[in-house]
Amino acid sequence: MAEIEWPWQYSFPPFFTIQPHAETKARQLQAWRTLVLNFHKVSKQSLLDVREAHQNSLFSNSSIDRKLPVEGILLVLEDLQKTGNAEPLDKTRNRWLIYWHTLEEWAALIYSWAQASGSLNSVCTFFELVSGDDTTDQEFYGLDQEVLSRALQVLESQKKAEIISFDDNQGVKFF
Amino acid sequence: MGAIFGKQKVKSRVTEQDRAILQLKQQRDKLKLYQKRIQSTLDKDTEIARTLLRDGKKDRARLILRKKKYQEQLLSTADSQLENLEKLTHDLEFAVIETQVIDGLRIGNEALKKANAVFSIDEIEQIMDETREGVEKQKEIDEMISGALSDQDEEDVLAELDSIIKEQTKQAEPAATEDEDMEELPDVPSEDPEERAAAKKKEKVSRHKEKVAVEA
Questions:
Q1: According to a count of CB atoms within 10 Å of the terminal CB, is the N or C end of chain B lower?
Q2: Regarding the domain delimited by A8-98, which CATH topology (the fold level of the hierarchy) does it fall under?
Q3: pTM of the model
Q4: In which band, very low, low, confident or very high, does the pLDDT at B135 lie, cut at 50, 70 and 90?
């Protein structure tokens, strides 16, 4: 796991308390958004479980002994959801998918790779896309299967791809 | 999903071949995963054998190495199978492309036939005739509108033009002689009037001669 460069706010104790003043709060949320997305981008993780968030160095800084409360985490996540950068996986809003690229961006990235590699009109497996030998230098290499599948659904709705799944086979055909 | 929720008019663009290719590729992925797994156990086994040797357990180390050898064989078998799979996948993909090429050729051929059917020889002749007629008619209309002249008129015009040119050249010459006449006014008589009268008589006689001479 690559090391993330923490912003200065991360060692600033008030950062871990949601600020009452509206303007300050907006700026605080903005900083949290950037931090959360950056953290997941660097660690290439797409899943976030709010219940386990405090074991995560993202929301708790042990060196200054501060933790962002669960309400704060949810606030940040809901803010991310508004811009399409996060999505809850269940109704209890405990497990979240974090998109450091929005699904549309992922879809565009994948499609442009497919165009560049001449994979249009041919079939690719999901495995091939995120763990294959041809995509190691792509940003979506190692991407979460769920996120990949959702990004491909975006492409499907744009009629640029069609997801094939039968038995335990999962693949996509680009057009 | 498309089959369940999609409307019927949305036809899946995934063909049977695509599904077959997908299955082949999936198999290939599984083999690759398997290779990864074997590779990692191989690495682990080497490590274990080393530690066993260091501890002086030579027999166990040999066992481990034998297992490792066996797995290496598996790995190479997997490699050859992988090659087969890839080959088959490529063959299949190429066959699909070939059918597409043939389809393209067929469509092109049909289009060409259709295009040729439209232009039968008779029709072309007819079209050419009609075009010619059209051009002639257009010419006539042009003449009418711009008051163009018939051949006869055209000749008349040329004749008139010629005559004007001739007149102009003629006019230019006489003008020159007239100028000379103006300069040659009769001189004031230098002899006596009597002598002149006598001379006149002579002149009158010779006048006719002179005129002829001048005219000639």
A1: C
A2: Arc Repressor Mutant, subunit A (1.10.10)
A3: 0.61
A4: very high
